[in-house]
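hey so u asked for the seq, here:
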Amino acid sequence: MGRKWNNIKENKASKDANNARIYGKFGIEIYVAAKRGEPNPEANPALKAVLDRAKTYNVPKAIIDRAIEKAKGGSEENYDELRYEGFGPNGSMVIIDALTNNVNRTVSDVRAAFKKYGGNLGVNGSVAYMFDATAVIGIEGKTADEVLELLMEADVDVRDIQEEDGAVIVYAEPDQFNAVQEAFRIAGITEFTVAELTMLPQNEITLPEDAIVPFKKLIDVLEDLEDVQNVFHNVDLGE
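ran it, structure tokens below
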């Protein structure tokens, strides 16, 4: 799974380089999670998961508090949670998750991005079956064997544990996201190098050189769309 972890790292680094944009997206995601459930993360697993992810991106407390207070205040602003699936250059596969208050705008922007860079928007299910929904949690200061023992004692099931780039990366089912983190917290580990709910491709492809630039542009344009929260793909960019 090392290559998959590298793609997650590259995506995270890209987001870290665009703080204002990513902070705004987290603000919306936090607001939606708080509005749909309790504004208290201890009583709202979905909100807790978003806040844990936000922490790994150093989202300022002011943005988090503002989003939660907006939800508490009974704001009538509503967002639809959408997933788009499409094909990029040379049969590459892309999944886009969005939160939007204007569905027509979002689908138009996503479709235009695919068209501009040699791809096309697919129907629901055309791509997602080639990806696995996965919780990815990373920590430092432990070995893989120590993490395995810790999680076994907590009776938490995981798919895989790898030592990669000085960190231990845990891959688990999405419904184990909070359980893995809670096991770490009980063991005194409260800082995570990564805490993501992601879509990992079952197989990655390598694009021909002339397709790499348009593919990267497609991903950049999609990630820059104001309604798009996450973009996943199956391309090994080899970076």
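The radius of gyration is 18 Å. The chain has a mean pLDDT of 90.
lmk if thats what u needed
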